[in-house]
Amino acid sequence: MKNWLTHLLLIGLLSLASSNSFAAIDSPGSTTKKSALSTLETLWDFLDAPARPIGVAANEPWVHIDLLKRELVVYQGGIRLESIPYLAYGAAGSQAVRLRGSKQTPTGVFTIRRVNRNSKFRLFFGIDYPTPQIAHDAWEDGILSDKDYQHYLSYRKRHGVAPADTPLGGYIGIHGLGRSPLWIHQKRDWTAGCVAVTNAEILALNKWLNVGTKVVIRG
Description:
There is one protein chain. This protein has 6 helices and 10 strands. The protein has helices at 2-25, 30-48, 132-140, 146-159, 182-187, 199-205; strands at 61-66, 71-76, 79-84, 94-95, 105-106, 108-116, 124-127, 173-175, 195-196, 214-218. Strand 2 and strand 3 (79-84) form a beta hairpin. The longest helix is centred in the N-terminal third of the chain and has 24 residues, at 2-25. It is globular and about 40 Å long.
């Protein structure tokens, strides 16, 4: 019921903004026109925005990565703060549970756990892959042995991040190109599982991303 009422309200506001923008075309005042169009664009952004992850406050930035569209967007609520229209990812595609050395990018909901500002890829935002849930599921499915799983739990408890030396791998994140050539980035997926953007784009993300930022990756 709440979602239905929200959509009804948004449709009403959208209609109002649309009618105001058309009325403003005949008006000599350009300020009214720009204001109405800005409202309309904001409403479209809100309607088009993916669902905010659980636990993320309305005023808190978070990242949505669509591997199929090759798009990375930083949202705050339903508003786009930063949009990157092209990215590269794992050379072997994507997988919810990716294995070490597979060159696949994991999909799911993650949290940035570390930031390396001296990375060879210019800037590196490391996510918490594998998450506790992924590690537990992998253990139940026999991908992780009892020894591997206990090592995972112990390491994460001591260091606050997931180990990278289990069969699930690790060191996955969002990074720039560093000295990697731009033409490779534009031609094919080239990473070992990370999401890559240009150096300029990773620096632009720096003002929004930090330890604790939620990252949603969809494949």
